[in-house]
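In this supplementary section we document a worked example of the pipeline. Step one takes a protein sequence of length 250 as its only input; no multiple sequence alignment statistics are reported here. Step two produces a three-dimensional model, which step three serialises into structure tokens for compact storage. The input and output of this example are shown verbatim.
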Amino acid sequence: MDSTDSSALISAHNLRVEINKQTILDNVSLQIDAGQIISLIGPNGAGKTTFVRALLGLQRLDGGKIERRPGLSIAYLPQRLSIDPAFPITVERFLELSTERKDKPVGAALEEAGIHQLRKLPMQSISGGELQRVMLARCLLRNPQLLVLDEPDQAMDTTGQQALYRLITDIRDRYQCGVLMVSHNLHLVMAATDQVICLQHHVCCTGHPEAIAQHPEFLRLFGQPVDGLAVYTHDHDHEHDLHGDIIKDA
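The serialised model returned by step three reads:
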């Protein structure tokens, strides 16, 4: 990727990141366009969160560059959020305090995230899945052009994941924003994904997800087809050692 497409919201060019003399990202490139959903998958330790931090400007690069559309509004749903149980705060108050810039009322964001009924509840009392939706509502306060979601389906069962994926698709359609969604699962991604990127410190492969109604891995995990999910199947043209490095032919 030598130049940024005029339709791109953000482009990463040949990113390289080293931490403690270990290569975490090597020659990783990506482009996200408006209205596009990209799923980033790979095993634990593959560099997914480091890549997200690099896109957000939170991680120093050792090589490559990132180009963002001028004035790009990015909203980020982090992988984890800890709420101090000694600091009682309602969902509504949490959202009011969570960001300086608000392009819409808190109530409207809660409504869009499907959790308006939670607004007066203490943050400490809601479930893990509800917390993810609160964090998504927090993102919506900014009317984002780019939505970055780091494992948004954690702490949810399959039904909850499907509902969340449908909600994210609806948000994409409503805002025509770009969406980068990170998953720790190498196989399970949302069917509405436009592109899947498999990361193992470098980009192993990219492509479109395939329908999984009869996929043996899906059937082994769930027992029956579930609408709204897809499995991305692919073949690598190389192998990795235990450290994630490419094994070169002798």
